[in-house]
Specification:
It is built from seven helices and no strands. The protein has one domain. Helix 2 runs antiparallel to helix 7 and helix 6 crosses helix 7. The chain has 171 residues and is mainly alpha-helical.
Length: 171
């Protein structure tokens, strides 16, 4: 696990671009990665990074690190919990159990209609909870990422100056 994190960290350090663009891309990646927008993540990343002139590569990389098959369930569960706190009764376990019990007594068409309605309610709860989680974390990630990428740029510049001094012939 330690090797995985060091590899991811090294890949992040190797990204090319201005620190501000990379930091904006990181914030976009955090926002989209945490928000429960599964089928639209790639399209949204492209649209938002083009509009904000952010690094698309940084956004995709960070989004993939945050939202992957290992983290889907915890992220969606957390979004559901926060959404349930914001919109109580809209998609609670009790509501879902009641709907399932009702579906068993209904015909196929009525059961599908009921499932679609509860699916829409649950989607609203997930979306609300996910956006409430994603926005503050994305806003917090920008200054952290900016400081990180400015530090990398400074170290690259210092290394470049050192290499120039070594290459200069002695007089």
């Amino acid at each position: 696990m330690k090797n995985l994190f060091s590899t991811l960290f090294r890949k992040l350090r190797q990204l090319q671009g201005s620190p501000a663009s990379l930091a904006r891309g990181t914030a976009v990646g955090v926002f989209i990665g945490i928000a429960p927008l599964m089928p639209l993540k790639s399209v949204l990343i492209l649209l938002i990074t083009v509009v904000t002139r952010s690094s698309t590569v940084a956004a995709v990389f960070v989004c993939t690190v945050i939202c992957n098959p290992l983290t889907y369930i915890p992220l969606y569960y957390l979004a559901w919990l926060v959404g349930t706190l914001m919109l109580p009764g809209q998609a609670s376990w009790e509501t879902l159990k009641t709907v399932i019990d009702q579906m068993q007594e209904l015909g196929l068409v009525e059961a599908i209609s009921l499932a679609a309605r509860i699916g829409f309610d649950t989607g609203i709860v997930l979306l609300a909870g996910g956006l409430v989680l994603a926005l503050p974390l994305a806003l917090c990630s920008y200054p952290i990422a900016l400081r990180f990428f400015l530090g990398i740029e400074r170290r690259r510049y210092e290394k470049h100056l050192l290499n120039k001094k070594v290459e200069e012939p002695a007089r």
